[in-house]
Amino acid sequence: MTELSVKGLKTGDIREISKALTLIENDPIKAKEIINALTDCDYDVIGLTGSPGAGKSTLTDRLASIYSEKEKVGIIAVDPSSPFTGGAFLGDRIRMKRASRNDNVYIRSMASRGKLGGLSPSIYDAVELLGRCGFRKILVETVGAGQSETDISNLADIVLLVLAPGLGDEIQMLKAGIMEIGDIYVVNKMDVEGAFRLKSRIEAILEFSKNQKDVILTDAVKGTNLEELVQLVEKELRFMKESGKINEKREKRRRFKKLNTIFQELKDLPDEALDKLASELQNFMGG
């Protein structure tokens, strides 16, 4: 690992961490080498997903500021990929003004690499790298569309499903099975008309489906109920750790990381090799 200083990564050197994340995004083999050089440790992964325009970036910014008072916080903002470069647009990062000025918070925008709303395979490695570099809370914010809602549940220990009134798609999301992946439901922009009605509707759906999950109203811009949201997150994390459910979630993350690595390797195969493999799989499955 001549390009990087392992000591610098272990001590949280931001330049070394940034270089390592760039390598992770572009070289899966190098990613494994980098991560294996660092000691594994305990960290919490909090995912934020939901409707575009619900205020996820501002909410992430606020949560990071609160957590950073006691520990180092890493933020991975998943941006849509540029159709020309494949790189992130950096839109979410621009909106995180508090976190960007906080020495105890590290922000990284990562491209979805053409998967609208989905999480690129390198994000699993990026989360693990930040955890091994001493970040005890890692917030992963998705672009909030398409595949992200299911992808984030495979990555995060706990998922905040962020909704807001007046966006026109919140009820469609609830009907589409997205409810299942949320651990805590956040109705943001509580000062907008319809917020309390939306909260009541979510609670009714949860009661009907016999899901005992918390629903909270917030205003990320004003900071209303953000401390209360952190308390709910910590309560859920404590329950998961005491019950052993956190181990199931983290084993699931390891499995999906392996699957993502396999898919990445398949993607890089020549067309002829892919066709041959597809034919063999079809024959194996009796197709």
TrEMBL record:
Domain of life: Bacteria
Database matches in Pfam families: MeaB
InterPro entries xref list: GTPase/Isobutyryl-CoA_mutase (IPR052040), GTPase_ArgK (IPR005129), P-loop_NTPase (IPR027417)
A single MF term (Gene Ontology): GTPase activity
Gene3D superfamilies: P-loop containing nucleotide triphosphate hydrolases
SUPFAM superfamilies: P-loop containing nucleoside triphosphate hydrolases
Keyword terms, alphabetized: Chaperone, GTP-binding, Hydrolase, Nucleotide-binding
PANTHER family: LAO_AO TRANSPORT SYSTEM ATPASE (PTHR43087:SF1), LYSINE/ARGININE/ORNITHINE TRANSPORT SYSTEM KINASE (PTHR43087)
Family as reported in the entry's similarity comment: Belongs to the SIMIBI class G3E GTPase family. ArgK/MeaB subfamily.
Name of the protein: Transporter
Organism expressing this protein natively: Kosmotoga arenicorallina S304
